[in-house]
Design brief:
The chain is α+β, with helices and mostly antiparallel strands. The protein has one domain: Alpha-Beta Plaits (2-Layer Sandwich). The protein is about 35% helix and about 30% strand. The chain has a 3-stranded mixed beta sheet with strand order 1-2-3, with helices on one face. This is Mannose/fructose-specific phosphotransferase system component IIA.
């Protein structure tokens, strides 16, 4: 899988998990002793699901790191050693599309 494909996949996964448009997500990848370390920079929505905040922005970012790595590995086969999340601002929540 190309670096561009990995980057795009990470952007979409992060955007979906954090509830922001993928174009607002910046991904940095680096080798970490044969594994992949992801750096994710993105704004977070202030309001969580159902219109209620659920913990601080930092708590929400920390809670999604493991899931992001697992989902990325599931989709790409690339084993993620760590996920670092940097909050770059706040935005309105990205509305989920109805099926």
């Amino acid at each position: 899988m190309s670096a561009q494909a990995l980057n795009s996949t990470a952007r979409v996964v992060a955007g979906d998990l954090f509830g922001v448009d993928p174009y607002l997500v910046r991904v940095f990848m680096r080798d970490d002793a044969g594994f992949l370390a992801l750096g994710i920079n993105l704004p977070l929505p202030i309001v969580a699901v159902a219109g209620r905040t659920t913990g601080s922005l930092m708590d929400r970012a920390r809670a999604q790191r493991t899931l992001l790595g697992e989902k990325f590995t599931e989709l790409t086969g690339a084993v993620v050693s760590r996920v670092d999340v940097r909050i770059t601002g706040v935005v309105n929540a990205h509305p989920k599309e109805s099926p």
